[in-house]
Amino acid sequence: MFLYQSDFPSILWILLFFLMMMFYPRLLLYQLIARFTRTAMLLESLASKGKNTILRKLKNGGEDVRKKLDSFLNFFVIPPVSLDPFGIIKKLEHMENLEESKFLYFVERVGKNLTDDEKWNVISALSAEIGVYQLSKIVKHYIELIQKTNSYQLALILQMQLTMIEKYSKSMYKAIEALSEGKPIGDSAGPLLASFFIKKKPKEIDNMVYSLEKIHGKRVVVLKAKGPGARIGKLGRVAEFLIDKYKIEKIITVDAAVKLESEKTGEIAEGVGVAIGGIGVEKATIEEIATKKKIVLDSYVVKMSQEEALLPMKEEILEGVKKVKGLIESNIKESKEKRILLIGVGNTSGIPNVSSDLEKTIEEILENSKRIKKWEEEEKKKEEKFRWFLGP
Known about the structure:
2 domains
């Protein structure tokens, strides 16, 4: 059989097709590994910078303290057995209390010269640092596994999550900076709302503060974590105590909530139930006593992205909190119940306990909002710059 000159292009294309079938997945795998390596280097850099931020805050970050911090970054909590759900809330609460005591004990050992508020700032910053550090380790683990197995499918699974991992890690790093300095973050929306309503000097109980206020002729107990340190507090047990003490008939909770991509930051939603995030211990405690005593449960949430909850508070969130304040005032005015508990849920970093101290805080939020928006624009430009080379 003779081959004519016109047959060579067809044969060449067939050969190229089979070569591409054999080598194209491998080329794609190399490209993905290059992308993963860049992300791993980014996360490692963020974890290192976050650790240095915490060490600077400790003020005595010698080699001994650095070693202790390196060891503590591998801290973990083993969840209790949930095969038999009876008593699971008490088990979770016990683990939560133990975790908090471990963090507090560690910070008291390495930061003896810190004030009480500064210690809680470091505890919250340390929680975010552990998150960045663990994400860095997980990404490096998958890179090693993909290189070892040459698994293109595993690489695709990691690629689908990579953009979200990068965004979340950068947000957690900015949270480390904000929390270590005691600045308000997005998750501080609930405590900020509570501070607007606290006019008197509040009473303290279990890292929480509360004040009995008279609003539109109703007795309103306003509750939040003690500020301006980055505390969350024991909302459930303290709320249970106040419900019994003041014969509460209605509970209003205010918290940050994750928005849909189509929603704007700072949008408000109103509903019923207990608006408290986390693993559910505080929420379950309040729900149980509210069900037993037939207490009305109203809730308001300020919408923001998962990243914005960690970042320094934006102006849009501040405006959302002000809108919620007006809605709650109307709620209290129209309420048939005379004794109301208002709970500002969230991390109270940078949020004072009384409304008379809020003027400086609001100015700080507006300044931080400008800075964080500028940082977001710079990060967006960086992402667009590298996207053409390494892919989305």
